[in-house]
Amino acid sequence: MTQSRRDFLKSCGVLIVNFSAGSLSVMSAQAPGPFGTHSSHIDPEKLESWLAVGADGVITAYTGKCDFGQGMFTAQCQLVAEELCVSVGRIKLIQCDTSVCPDQGTTSGSQSTPTNFNSENLALAAATAREALLSLAANKLGEPVEHLRLGDGVIAGKSGRRVTYEELIGNKHFNLPLKATAKRRSPEQWTVLGKPIPSLDRTALMTGQFEFIHHVRVPGMLHGRLVRPPEMGATLAHVDEQSVRNVAGLVKVVIRKDFVGVVAETQYQATLAARQLAVRWNPAPELPSQKDFFDYLQKQPGNDVLSVDSHDIDAQLAGASSVIRARYTYPYQMHGSVGASCAVADVKPESATVWSATQSVYPTRSIVAKLLNIPVDKVRVIFVRGSGCYGLNGADAVSFDAAILSQAVGKPVRLQFSRQDEMMWENLGSACVIEHRAGLARDGRIVAWHREDWAASLGNRPGYDQPGNVITGMLLGFEPERQEPRAAKPPTGKFRNRSNTVPPYFAACVEGRCEGDGTIPSERALTHTVRSPFFTGPLRSPLRIQNTFANECFMDELCARAKADPVAFRLLHMQNPRTIGVLKAAAHVASWQARSSPKGDVSLAKTVSGRGIACVAYEGDNGYAALVAEVDVDLETGTVRPTRFVVALDCGPISNPDGLRNQTEGGILQGMSRALVEEVTWDDKRITSVDWETYNSLHLDYEMPQVEMFFVTPANVPATGAGETAITITPAAIGNAIFDATGARLRHLPFTPERVKAALAESVQRADRA
Amino acid sequence: MKEKITLNVNGQRHVAEVDPETPLLFVLNDELGLRGPRFGCGMAQCGACTVLVRGKVVRSCVLPVRTVGQDEVTTLEGLGTAEKPHPIQQAFIEEGAAQCGFCLSGVILTAKAVLDVKPDASDQEMRDALAGVLCRCFAHTRMLRAIRKYAEAKRA
Which CATH number fits domain B3-77: 1.10.10.10, 3.10.20.30, 3.90.850.10, 2.60.40.10? Predict the structure, then answer.
């Protein structure tokens, strides 16, 4: 995409705001960070914390939100280029380096777009800078701001005189606070943002030049490998250092409480030493059996939270024309990054630098400081992209591990996880049980819905002060953050639905205010967070995908009982115009035929097909999506094969449509892999899905279905997250399509052929009985 | 113990002083500073470490460097440069066929090796060849589209 200078002049000419001398006051330093519990030396209220113009005209932007392969680097370059009316090539974006970037917490949770692309932070900084440059130009050119036009880094007055950004401020500080009233350019004015600019990392990626964390090399660097315990909870009994005496290049066996690692001159030597080191461990208690695990979860004491409670649920269910119950279960799943995690640490006696693919550079800085016992301001964490993480993969733990090793040997150490280090010890996506009870009135409407879930949890992101939330901290003697068992209190305050616990059909009335997306008046949603035997943590759409699978499939069950069309039945119970908008759009684009499920033409065919729909208001208000799935089911083998997806997505103004398409398509197909094949397994001692032969993922030989996409773009709404919306509804849409095709309801993920066949047999039996 | 090993990589001779049992991947990454092949699993299960040896697909994470001999090794960066990408790389650039891109050596080099031998390989044959290649971002559709685009251009 090229823009002529004339286009820029035309598009960037409107400006009204003047800077008065009074507004130039500098904010005090060391303001508390807005995203966490600490303060950074980079004051996010100051413009120069976000932007600088070099003498060469290059605009350097500093962001605390980094790119993990989903296009955030390109989109943020577009954002800054747009606000400053320059081409993307003029922007140099520095991502997540604690020495120069503002603390924006963690890059996660579909928060980068809402955080940096609306009216705060990076967007506000860029808008503030544009207004500041105009104000400076007005002085310089002796013309009012209203007469000035901007184009590609040049400001021109009516007189014809021009001045460049670098002439105005090159290599100098703006010395200004962010200006809350600085005006963002509106989507109608956009010439760079909103365009499908090819992602800027493409050529480097495809030609093998891109620098991943795995490629970082530091002079004098050594190589580390770990020796993790054989199972969760095992403690160190003895290390026989003599066992590796003959390994050439071995520098040190590092032992700290239950942490064991080796450092050697080369990767190969480190690998050999780790393999050869004789370590005895005190065994851990047996694990709960996987077979009965969900029953086990439901018996554990919970940290209980009521999201909504209308206090009339039992009475309403007693009076309902029919009551339906169902229990859904969701397995542990893995981030399963293709690249086993890696980090490089250079720890000196009084300072440390860590190159890390973490989503959380500042929290990582705090944890490293704590583990190494050095002041936090002496630690620098520099983000370097790793293999796609999809949440909290091994990137945080490997960064801590590398720092421990480097401190022990006093030299820079690169640490490469083995595949098993990665998969046996990552913070898994939570296993959940979700139970529903709902009542239908005689007219088929839902009158009451009770929903209760049990979510397995242990650890989490380490944040700024909880190293025990991941394996490294636990081995060093830190406890994971505690989830004390406690009874639920009545819901109070503003209704929030961050984990999509509450279906979008609930009125969600809290203290008399009904802020849900739906109309069902009698409602109760109770969550028990119970202790998991394995570490858990955010995996793309954390708890949202589990809850939505159960909610949207159960909605389909109610709909089938009411013999209603799944789209019409949903619309009957919804009132959020944006969720309604995507639901209608998806149905329309998919040429949805209104009828009830199952399809019911059970013929003698070996393969039957069906369609299903699901929708979500992600986190309540952070992106809206509806998905139609079409599937074939082989009745003999039980194989499910999705044949088509149609998704409608509303995430407000779109920064880069090509990036959004790429991410949405990847999200749906990843969701399909999670729906069809992905499940963590364990025996009585340990996790047994520790590589790609024991943990299933759809490889590149899988014939992927067509994905059709439709964007709903309402005017005058803020930008929301988008990356996790479509994946959230994929398992439910597939499950509903299987039901439509076969009449069999799948209530446990993944939909393996065995489970499908079992459900088919059960549904035939039920039909025989009826 | 360390020995001097001569390797032919991307059209250049290199001498590395390493233990001959060292996996080829570590030599390419650590001694030659190449970025194309990457450590994914270390078990030949995912394809991230893929290189071509005499035009054939090899998992460099499990291949002892001593076995390579004088055979020509090609890594992802050996196909083309940023200024002059190989046509298959160009097809991937045009289609934006990646998210994180960590898996690309396996995807691009495997596809190229198949089409070098069988330019009219069917979609099914291509998928069969890619059965051991893993992409966890699930950029599958764009990748297959890029491969098809390259194959069509190559045939034309």
Answer: 3.10.20.30
